[in-house]
Amino acid sequence: MFYYIIDILGTIAFAISGVYAAMSKKLDPFGVFIIAFVTATGGGTIRDVIIGKTPVFWLINYTYMYVIVGAVIFAILFRKQLRYLRTSLFLFDTIGIGLYTVVGVEKGIEAGLHPFMCVVLGTITACFGGVVRDILCNEIPVIFEGREIYATACIAGGVSYFLFNELPIKSDIIFAAPIVIVIVIRLLAVRYKLALPAIENKDKR
Amino acid sequence: MFYYIIDILGTIAFAISGVYAAMSKKLDPFGVFIIAFVTATGGGTIRDVIIGKTPVFWLINYTYMYVIVGAVIFAILFRKQLRYLRTSLFLFDTIGIGLYTVVGVEKGIEAGLHPFMCVVLGTITACFGGVVRDILCNEIPVIFEGREIYATACIAGGVSYFLFNELPIKSDIIFAAPIVIVIVIRLLAVRYKLALPAIENKDKR
Amino acid sequence: MFYYIIDILGTIAFAISGVYAAMSKKLDPFGVFIIAFVTATGGGTIRDVIIGKTPVFWLINYTYMYVIVGAVIFAILFRKQLRYLRTSLFLFDTIGIGLYTVVGVEKGIEAGLHPFMCVVLGTITACFGGVVRDILCNEIPVIFEGREIYATACIAGGVSYFLFNELPIKSDIIFAAPIVIVIVIRLLAVRYKLALPAIENKDKR
Questions:
Q1: CA-CA distances (angstroms) from residue A45 to A128, A162, B52, C115?
Q2: Where are its TM segments located (chains A, B, C) (predicted)?
Q3: Across the 205 residues of chain A, what is the mean pLDDT of every consecutive 10-residue run?
């Protein structure tokens, strides 16, 4: 029940970040909805497709569609007030990527994949919704530009899942602890403005 | 047989719209063909992949490949005369999205999905070829910009499929009527210049 | 063993071409790695997904991940020296697309597809990694612009596979000869600056 609520809050935060991106491009309501939808479901869709778990999750579990439709309508109606929710949305988003990472890792384990690949799947689940959003909006994906420790936090969370799994602790904690680690890393990175440096080839051009 | 002809005409119209888009970017013949191919098959490919119906339709049914190769060669050779066909192509395209919507809905029913998800699949089938075309051409997808009632017509057509299904009418009509509805809505929208308004956040920037 | 080495060299060359593209966009290390990874694996991933061969190849065979991680670290550390390797990398890349074409063709045959579709799969395997790389970097895919005979070489190689298959020769040669054909066509095209002309519609605008 607790994780269900986190999942819903994460989906809402992701969908609203899609609405923001779409509004800055002056899209129509249908375009806004599509961008919100792919932002919230894109990572899990790619995960399900590459491991062959079809129909993909949101075709089977209708909750996501209802939640996203509701979030988009809410975000469009109250778009002027959304900035007051900025901190809440950032927190939902951060909690959401933590949960999505662990969900992706567990889907990888279910599919019988190597731990390394499970971490990759978790990171894809958490990060690729935003990548598809940025591609549809004709931007270079923001997570590639190093302004936020985003993927790095997911990778650390995914790796910690397997470390905790080695310890004699309860499965609830193995599930929850990596989420906390993702959240803490991201909050610290934003608080102290940590970012990965851009790599460029000064020698060229 | 009748629907088969519609399918071919729709595929031709979609492929030629891809050729147009590719020519405006000055691509080489191979690039033109790829753009035409993804425009005509992209929506159905995404549909087949997310419901897990693989190999995807055009790998099994070679007709699409032949039709698209023919349409591309025709469109490249007669590119100066194509504007005289503009009205015909618009009609083929409109009939095509109507048919694609219903085909997508029925594939969703076959896969055992909820009616709501079937409508989503129908809309994806009809609309996402154009979305992939625009992404490959490095443009924001045109259907997101509200210049045409495109997705809205597909959604209405898909919903009407299930409404007609409740009525005591023949399956032929349940198949045909939603196609007519998609066509009528789109023709009316273009005739009376109906469009969805852009949503933007004037408060920001 | 011989083909295994070619596969590794091709993967390295593809990954490094991704690192180059990412560095010109000043991405962070994670972005560089993702671009390198999709460049090296994107074609095969699309192939596996559309024929329904999941989990996709790199989720099962970890070698690709290790090789790409190694190639990215190498390319980032020695980015100033990479230009001295330009010719080697071009050769690896050319050998790689030859091999990828034949691997794709054989996967299509395994999946029971028509020879025409097998050639298409081979071309997708060899070319679409670069297409996804360019989309993620917000560029029009370079292979669409006709500056290099790239896809054309793959198509010729794929077709030759089925022609050799008709001849009374050993399966080793049926596998190797098309690779040589792809390589020779591409080298000749680059040597003599052969390119397909852009198709545009001067009549319009």
A1: 9, 23, 12, 31
A2: 6-23, 30-50, 56-77, 84-102, 114-136, 148-167, 173-192
A3: 79 88 83 90 94 93 92 89 77 86 92 93 92 87 74 91 88 86 89 74 50
